[in-house]
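MODEL INPUT / OUTPUT PAIR
PAIR INDEX: 1
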Amino acid sequence: MVCKVCDVTTFQRARSDEQREQRRRAILSAAAAMLAEMPVAELSLNELSRRVGLAKSNVLRYFETREAVLLALYDTAWTAWLDRLDAVLPPAAADGDARARYERVAASLTASLVADPLVCELISVSASVLERNVSPQVARRYKLASIANTERMAAQLRSALPELSNDGAWRAAAGTLLAVGGVWPLTNPTEAMLCVYEDPEIARLRLDFNSALEEVLSVILAGCLSRWPST
């Protein structure tokens, strides 16, 4: 129904597990829509509650803090990205130049991430923002989900590059997340930095996310193939 006073959509109290899950998904969907408009730092529980049509206290029935909302959104976005990654990674080749193959994998990884700014944004603030202000219970649930997602990504990489050992594939998957976390904020500078980059003497420091990430991922994959090859 629509509240005539504040003109936002309101909901009756969720009674069933299905209704509660629908409410939970609505909160995450609203948070994702907000992050398409603003950085993580500007997302507030008050505005999220307004957009989803719930009192702030009701949002807190589902997520204990703003950061808990974002951690759940991160897991959802990460899982969805891995679903899409299955379709874009090149298949394993029985022969051919190893360098050409790992560079194709790096290019495919990069293209999939360029197309998914939400997951890049959440990766980049996962340790510095999302993991703060949550209970040990939420933190444990998030870390277990992260292990599962990293293991799945490692399996995807090993399928594309069977020369990688299991340990090497895990390290390549973890390295990909570290690379995104470092490259994303550097390639999305503030307005002040954009002004500075107009100076030709400083412009060389301006990085393009696509090319910078692909180069870093190629180096990570080459290193993992060298240090942790399949035996």
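PAIR INDEX: 2
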Amino acid sequence: MNSVNKTLYIPLYGKAFVSRKGIILDDKKAEEIWAAEGFDLKGKSKSKWLAYYMGMRSRVFDEWLIQQMNRDAEALVLHIGCGMDSRIARVGSRNHQWFDVDFPDVIEERKRFYEETNEYHMIESDARNTDWISTLPKEKNAIIVMEGVSMYFALEELKGLLKALNAHFDHCIILMDCYTEFAAKASKYKNPINDVGVTVVYGIDEPKALEVGTDLSYVKEHEMTPAFLVDELKGMEKVIFKKLFAGKIADKMYRMYEFQSGEKR
């Protein structure tokens, strides 16, 4: 497994950590997989602060996804860069066709813990090679989650993927998290992903840049550390997290953006 793929263990650890504490995210599958297969993380990648952040980020993605699935009962769900994430278990397919996508060696590992069904499917591919998109049903709306993925794509690679997705589906709505350009530059020197050998990442300061050539419309920014989740922390942990990992300081590093096809609905 290459260094980029090893980054999947960082959010897995974070989700298992908060789930064991009974806060932020209920993720028994992450606990199970980490107990069985946890990679030997070092340094910042095992920080409790990062674990809280990973748990909150995933909870925001989950709640957005549930809202969109309830809104469109016929839409296809697409999770790009799924890693070992158990979103399908946390959210449930809710009778939607659900596709998880990641590198072949990641999906091979994933199949040790997840089974495909009539509704749940796994696709082995580098997401940059957009040929895999042609294997998905057409004439469908799509709800697309890209968590912890965009920072490994150069801008034109990311736009190529988004353009191909938008062209394939009747309508798509996408939620993704992104590094800022400042965070991408700083990541060369100080980032938990350095602990698994990753030093090259990319950032986006202006989400509307992703509208150009993709026929997508920027909808809005989402908060990754909403107050109701920060409030699940207690005492000084809550105080420190709010000061260092939420609000304006965090915004300088990390953002979450929603896009959709064409004009806003």
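PAIR 2 NOTE: The longest helix spans residues 48-71.
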